[in-house]
Design goal:
alpha+beta, elongated, Glucose Permease (Domain IIA), 6 helices, two-stranded parallel sheet, about 375 residues, about 20% strand, ten-stranded antiparallel beta sheet, about 60% helix
């Protein structure tokens, strides 16, 4: 425990910053682009045509911001997994070290007792025993006994040597893992800082975008554009599904778990705006929370989509697909196979959302169906 505390203290003491020049240049470029758009909006805000152009440019910039966040968030998630894995390995090595150290103590004590016994028994010279007219049979028995003790000592010495070698190997592995742990902790601190910067840049872009959507008409227009974008993705997914005829489809109704824990914020079929209705459900959940595949299948879409942010679509076979939107980052790529309950993404606010959550759809042969028919609490 003392060693671990000392090592953890050394992590903080040994913190160094690594160069982030390439990433910083990209962030500076997007910040400069945002300032240029802001200036144009302030000058031409009354002109509808110009406002629409600025909106499109801001949506394009928002896409870049959210893709940058997704990249960093994916690294953060991987680092967390690595840290957990190394902590587990160190704990296992610590247990093994304790066991080997106890074994070494026992083996040293056994060998010490054997050497003491041999010393007390004294030296038994074969020729002297013959001159003393001892029975040859007795002599053979004594020699056999001493040979047995000698072999036992040799075996004990070899066992002790093996234990010492294993202890040295465990110590080396502990040092290597601790060095890697130190490096990962520093990387995690840098990644967290980078993630904050990217989220701050996104918020600035989103604020300007919301300024161009002040009227209900503009908002409805955006929803219609987003619906059209989603429709195209579904059509692409239907074409891709034809290449996966061997999948089993979804389980019986209400036997699947929801993809993430949280409160249903907007239900299937509820009014969104005007005549636009929700074709899925929105689940309020903490940013960074795991999103799991509701069933096994194959990823047929994994990319940023206007209005829905980072989106992942899984083909489950027999015409069934599930869609997961507003993710912070995607942990799977198109073409990947997934199993039921496997983490495929993290909850986020992408797609211009102000609050974190998951947009979730289930479709059968392209038609949206109520996810509550298949998922249960």
């Amino acid at each position: 425990m003392t060693i671990r505390l000392f090592i953890k203290a050394s992590i903080v003491a040994g913190f160094i910053s690594l160069p982030l020049s390439v990433q910083a240049t990209d962030l500076d470029r997007r910040q400069s682009e945002l300032k240029s758009i802001q200036t144009q909006i302030n000058k031409q805000q009354s002109a509808v045509k110009d406002t629409n152009k600025q909106r499109d440019r801001l949506i394009s910039l928002l896409k870049k911001d959210e893709q940058a966040i997704a990249t960093v968030a994916k690294r953060v998630n991987k680092t967390k997994q690595d840290l957990t894995s190394i902590d587990k390995a160190l704990a296992e090595l610590s247990v093994k070290f304790t066991q080997l150290d106890k074994l070494k103590t026992i083996q040293q004590k056994t060998l010490s007792n054997q050497l003491a016994s041999a010393y007390l028994a004294g030296n038994h010279d074969y020729s002297k025993m013959l001159l003393n007219q001892q029975s040859p049979a007795s002599i053979e028995r004594l020699l056999a006994y001493y040979q047995y003790l000698n072999n036992a000592r040799i075996a004990s010495i070899k066992q002790l040597q093996t234990t010492i070698v294993e202890l040295d190997e465990v110590k080396l592995k502990q040092q290597e893992n601790q060095t890697r742990l130190n490096k990962l902790v520093i990387e995690q601190q840098q990644q967290a800082k980078r993630l904050d910067q990217e989220q701050s840049q996104r918020q600035q872009t989103l604020t300007q975008l919301q300024r161009t959507l002040t009227s209900s008409g503009a908002k409805l227009e955006q929803l219609q554009i987003e619906e059209a974008s989603l429709k195209r993705v579904v059509e692409q997914a239907l074409l891709a599904m034809k290449n996966n005829p061997s999948l089993d489809g979804l389980s019986s109704k209400r036997k699947l778990k929801w993809p993430t824990k949280g409160r249903i914020k907007s239900g299937f079929g509820s009014k969104r705006s005007g005549q636009v209705k929700w074709k899925g459900v929105t689940i309020s959940a903490s940013e960074g929370q795991n999103i799991a595949a509701i069933a096994g299948g194959k990823v047929i879409y994994a990319d940023w989509l206007r209005g829905f942010g980072m989106v992942l679509v899984v083909d489950h076979g027999k015409g069934y697909m599930s869609l997961y939107g507003h993710a912070q980052t995607l942990l799977k790529s198109a073409g990947d196979s997934v199993i039921k309950g496997e983490s495929i993404a993290l909850v986020g606010r992408s797609g211009g959302q102000t609050e974190s959550g998951l947009y979730f759809e289930v479709r059968h042969k392209g038609q949206a169906v109520d996810p509550a028919r298949y998922c249960k609490r």
